[in-house]
Amino acid sequence: MGMKPPNPDIIAVHTYWNSSEGFKCPLCNSQLNYAYNDGGRLVITLKGNLWVVSNYYRCLNNDCEFNRAFPVVHENVIQNKKFGRDVWERIIRFHFRYHMDYSQIKMMLLDEWAVSISKGTIGNICRHFEGASQVYLNEQVLKDIQASGKIMLSLDGAQPKKGRPALWIFSDRITGHVLLSVLLDSAPSPILVEKMSEIQEKYGVPIEAVISDKQKNIVNAVKQFNPEIPHAFCQYHFLSHIMGPVQSKDSHLATQLKKKVRSLSVIAKQPLGQLNKRNPEYNPLYDILSPLAEELLGAIAVSGKKWKVFKGKEIYENLDYIVKKLNKLSLIDISQKIKHSLQSVASSLGQLLKKHQNLYDEILVLLDDSKDLRKVLDNSRNTAKYIQKKTFTWIYRLQSRLKSRGLEYRGKDIGYVQMNHDSDLTTIWQQWVRLEHSYSEGIYLSYKNEEIEKTNNAKEQLINRTKRHFKKWLGQQDFQKVFEKHGAIYSTLVPLDLNSEKIHEILWKHSVAYVEGYISGFSTFQPITNRRWQIREINTGNWDVLQKNIKS
After folding, report:
1. Sign of CA dihedral 382, 383, 389, 394
2. 3-state DSSP: the chain helix, strand, coil percent, rounded to 5?
3. What is the pLDDT of residues 418-439, one digit of tens each?
4. 511 occurs within a structural domain
5. pLDDT at 547
6. Could you give the CA distance from residue 153 to residue 172 in angstroms, rounded to a whole number?
7. What is the domain range of residue 395?
8. In the listed set 416, 448, 480, which residue is the last one of a domain according to the structure?
9. Can you say whether residue 91 is alpha, beta or left, with left for phi > 0 and alpha for psi between -120 and 50 degrees?
10. What pTM did the predictor assign?
């Protein structure tokens, strides 16, 4: 008989052998007998405390493994652990899925389920799960890899912080399993060869292909490991290098245009037009011109999309659109001060666009030059032969330009040059020819073999997700935008004791205020302006308001 629970209010439960086949050993089918119980112990669950008495049973067959007494474990009990399975599951989900730190988990369990647990215990549970997951994954990965019979290896490394060891991840792209994750202070080719040999030996199947982003140490390692296996180069990295100078020029253009637009008085002094009219600092001119300020702010609020939307180009075209709209405004019968301000803005924007005309034109040329390559590589249904043919045509066009200018046009003879926003077009064309030559050995392999992926993005996404987990967990993420949006309200809430009663009171008073029409007196939320930058396609209404303002 088990001991009584220390508190009479705690529910006591007993575990029993419960099988449709009766008291028969699951291993040898012999008779099972009750042996003893453990006397009972306290288990803390999300639904309350339990006093669990585990009964032990023994097989009567002396040769059976179950001849040694074994317990029947309660469904919510983890053997020899104080906290129930549901507590463990919640902690593991909070930490590994939602990236919560130990303090946050501790407070969550206490607030929501009145479960008191130390940060040290939470850490131990997470570490226990890490170890258990490795055992589970090792068995599953070994089974899947051996069933596949080969490995298509993808590898990459990333430093969470410069000067610190890099996390290198080796994975199989057929099964999607991570085969090895290791921190390396440095990763010269001999080290990588050793790791590839270790993987091949561990799983007992050959590495038949490799995909990487063409780092020199990886290229050398693959050649040393087995020069006969194909080594595919990541298409995404190739295109990133191609588009690098375009994005550099575009980013520089965007920075210069935004800087100048924000310095215009119509924007810099816009707050003076938003003051109370009785305020001596209030300036009606900037109140009248506020629609123009909003249109300008919208014009530079471009959100880029890699290789789809180029911020500098879009901002330039938005500002050009605004200049044309300003020049079409009817300025008859309006005050000289307003007319001068509008003409001044149009003149400043016109000079700004003229100053950066060459940079804008270069971006257009490079985008037009690169579109054929991007188009052909974007279509995964194209054959390797077709892709090579189209790419060679693209390269030939660049080489013809270089040759006609008396410049080096052979990829093998062109040296590396660090490109930036000042790089001229001929230098960029040369570097594109050099890039294709250096990537040609592995860029087309994935089109010849469907089992080889075209990009190494899955690996980079895994590394980035891992880095993001630790940034969130350790509080190192960039919180500036969140702080700007919520900081003012949070500063009023922090001093409050936000228990259930206080939260209920706040929500109840807000509801009453809303019903009675006094919501404005209780509302502390500040309006957040979400500006649309597609001002050339969408009628923002700012021009109609501006025309009305200047006429009145």
Report:
1. positive
2. 55, 10, 35
3. 999 999 999 999 999 999 999 9
4. no
5. 86
6. 5
7. 379-448
8. 448
9. alpha
10. 0.72
